[in-house]
Amino acid sequence: MTTTMLRFRHLLTATVLTGAIMMGCASSDPLYSPSFATLNRPAPDSFDVEVLTSAGMFELRLIRDWSPLGVDRAFYLFRNNFYEGARFYRVIDGFVAQFGGSGDAALDSIWRALPIADEPVRRTNARGTLAFARAGARSRSMTMFINLADNARLDSVDSGDVVGFPPLGRVTRGMDTVDSLFSGYGPVPMRSDLTAATLREQYPQLDSIAATHVTRMY
After folding, report:
1. What sign does the dihedral 63-64-69-74 (CA atoms) show?
2. Are strands 162-163 and 158-159 parallel, antiparallel or unpaired?
3. I want to staple 125 with a disulfide (CB 3.0 to 4.6 A). Which of 78, 117, 151, 162 is the partner?
4. Does pLDDT of 11 surpass 50?
């Protein structure tokens, strides 16, 4: 066997091994390959999440009794740091600060295809509460918003034959950070083709999430 053939053989072997390793990592990644069992595992009765952002830190407490399916999904996403790099792309002073989408089109498409069932509103959308956004029936998946004011009208607004936005929990610390999120662009349209790099280039002042940590479970 010639030296050239040996080199080619070694290169081919290394390429195959690298591909296998990458496929193995992807198949075990809880965000890229969520299993039915883990997705349907109940969250704790309540838990705290530390959210580190470009504007500072704030803390959330989510309460399963408020929206069981919503909190189960939120627990999975926060615990697995889904929102790392997510932009606060719709910040409207006196209304809401909305975030969601990782900037990874492949990852986001996975979660758009895994919506959760609709639930009734059990708590009002008071200032500081967190809820899933939606665009009609059975469309809650990954996009969330924090109420910047008392928005009781969101308890009963009818859209796509679904009534209201059920809160999941509330900000318990750092509401001043949430209030300071950049709002100068107005609502930024979040198309599926907008990557994190594109958002950085076109909307450089948007605040973003650096990491989320589940710090306590009750």
Report:
1. positive
2. antiparallel
3. 151
4. no
The pLDDT tens digits of the residues spanning 45-57 come to: 999 999 999 999 9
The domain limits of the chain are 1-30, 36-217
Q: How confident is the model at residue 2 (pLDDT cuts 50, 70, 90)?
A: low
Tell me the CB-side half-sphere exposure of residue 182, using CA atoms within 13 A. 16
- Average pLDDT of 108-112? 94
| 194 — pLDDT class (breaks 50, 70, 90) | confident
Q: Give per-residue burial for 71-96: e unless 16+ CB within 10 Å, then b.
A: bbbbbbbbbbbbbbbbbbbbbeeeeb
Phi, psi (5° rounding) for residue 210? -85, -40
Amino acid occupying residue 94: G
User: Tell me, what DSSP letter sits at residue 86?
Assistant: -
Question: How many residues appear in the chain?
Answer: 218
What pTM was estimated for this model as a whole? 0.86
Query: Over the Cα atoms of the chain, what is R_g?
Result: 20
Q: Percentage of the chain with pLDDT > 70?
A: 86
Domain 36-217 in CATH 2.40.100.10? The answer is: yes
74 is written with which tokens? 């939120």
Sheet strands side by side (includes 96-99): 88-92, 96-99, 144-147, 129-132, 167-173, 56-63, 46-53, 209-217
